[in-house]
Structure formats: structure tokens, C-alpha cells
Amino acid sequence: MGLLVAGGRVSVSGPRLAKVATEVLSPAVVVLLLPLAVAWQATGCRVGPTLLWGIVVALFSSILPMVFIIRGARQGRWDGHHVRDREHRAVPLLVGLASTGVGLAILLVGDAPRAVVALTIAMAVTLATCIAVTVWWKVSLHAAVAGGAVVMVALLYGPWALLLLVPLFIVCWSRVALRDHTVAQVVVGALLGPAVGGAVFLAIT
Predict the structure, then answer these.
(1) Entry pTM
(2) Are 154 and 161 in contact (CB under 8 A)?
């Protein structure tokens, strides 16, 4: 990352840091890690079941949808793996919702822990809400996923998890700094995730 030295102080180049934050804290990455965190608590901290259920959720809610998006971007169907153009978001988001539905069916058939099922339903409802909003407005999926993740982890692990508000703020800043979203779009996303996903998760668990 680029470093700027001014008045004896060292600062990180804004655009480069924003790009790193956008990738490291992207929905795909968050949805890889969040299921493991939920499964760890839900299975009594047992490694095997944690990996089993965490990988099922991550595969169908993150990996497979991301493979579809990246393939579409390489074919020129949309402008990149973040699908910045709102008009092109419907198809990849609907594919992600369908894939999450398949994962949910596997969890139900396999008698997965209640919290893991609740997580998957919460993510599906949040995604469906974002799809509905995207019809007329470009809400930030980065902010929605990160915001929902903070609330769900806090519900399971306690108030110390609220330290995750720091990366939530960083990813919201990065989306605005890169001009992929307005302040209003990231604020609404950061509120939508907890209000929808967090509420659904709490209601089921």
C-alpha cells in the first residue's frame, strides 16, 4: 500500500486502502467466515461439526454464487465481481438467493444446529430485501452483509463482538471512497443488515 509522509506522520494512501478494505471485507469473504463463527458456538466448539456446517453454508451462500459472478464478469455480462452497475445486479443476486436456498434445504435435511439454520434464513431474507431495493436503488451489499454479521455475532458471543463495528465502518468508508456508493447507500445498507438479518436471526434462535 502506498505510504505518504507529511510532517513526520505516516499515512496510508486512501484509494489503495479503500480497495483493500473492499476486497478483504467483501460479502463473499464475510459469508465465508460468519458461518464458521456461528457453527462454532452452535456446536459447542466442536471442530468437526463446525467445519461441516460452516462449509455447507459458505459453499452455497458465498463460493458458488461468487464463481457465477466472476464467470459472468469474465464473459462481459457485468462490469466486475462487485457488479457496480445496479441494472445488472438482479441476475447474480437471484442466483445467490437460489443457491442459498439449496444450502438451506441441505441444512434442514441434515438436521443442522438451529443457529446455523437461522443464519442461513437470515441471510436469504436480507438478500431478498436487497434485491427488492435494488430494483429502484443501489443499496450497499457490503454494508448490509457486514452490518448483519456484527449483530449476529454479538447476539451469540456478547458485547465484545461490537468491536466488529470498526471493520463495518471501514468497509462503509471504502465503498464511498471508491465512489461505488453514496453515503446514504452505505448507511441504509448498514442499517438494513441488522434490522432484517439480525431480527430474523434473533427470532429463530
Answers:
(1) 0.90
(2) yes
